[in-house]
Design goal:
Blueprint lengths: L7 E10 L2 E6 L12 E2 L2 E3 L6 H13 L3 E14 L2 E12 L13 E4 L13 H15 L1
Parallel strand pairs: 1-6
Antiparallel strand pairs: 1-2, 1-4, 2-3, 2-7, 5-6
The structure holds 8-OXO-2'-deoxyguanosine-5'-triphosphate.
Length: about 140
């Protein structure tokens, strides 16, 4: 769904537990850009859906986990060759603290400190820098 700026709004969940976050490689699907890059769970807002609700729904659909959405950390507008996106990043955690992502979903718990070494879509640079700096603080 397009926002006021004409950008496609996207809700993204930073599902964290014990210094790790859930990521997977973007699947190679027809019409889905940037296959093979790592990503956080998320996707486009449906008509009338808030980014927060989209983040919760996509986390559920993609990882199988029911999540509690926390604060909105950042909003990033980015132009890709495939279009203009407005990415809303939310802190999230599994409603059941011991729950694991669905087998076959491709999601893994990656240490936050490892994220700078992985290839993500370009628009994720600011959130990756922010997460890396908060992991330094925790470590230090
Ligand atoms: N899920 C997700 N999308 C991201 C991230 N970083 C980033 O730039 N994006 C971009 C890629 C796409 O342009 C857009 C999300 O679209 P998508 O294609 O993954 O979403 P979707 O599941 O709703 O799409 P569809 O294939 O069902 O049409 O946000 C990220 O970390 N996670």
């Amino acid at each position: 769904m397009a926002g006021a700026t004409g950008a496609t709004r996207v809700g993204i969940g930073l599902i964290a537990r014990g210094g790790r976050v859930l990521i997977r490689r973007r699947p190679p699907r027809p019409g889905s850009p940037m296959p093979g890059l790592w990503e956080f769970p998320g996707g486009k807002c449906e008509p009338g859906e808030s980014p927060e609700a989209a983040a919760a729904r996509e986390c559920r659909e993609e990882t199988g986990l029911l999540v509690e959405i926390g604060r909105r950390r950042r909003v990033v507008t980015h132009r890709y060759p495939h279009g203009l996106v407005e990415l809303h990043y939310f802190d999230a955690r599994p409603a059941d603290p011991g729950a694991e992502p669905e087998a076959g979903s491709g999601f893994i718990w990656a240490p936050v400190a490892d994220l700078p070494n992985l290839s993500f879509p370009e628009a994720n640079a600011p959130i990756l820098a922010e997460l890396a700096s908060s992991s330094d603080e925790e470590a230090g």
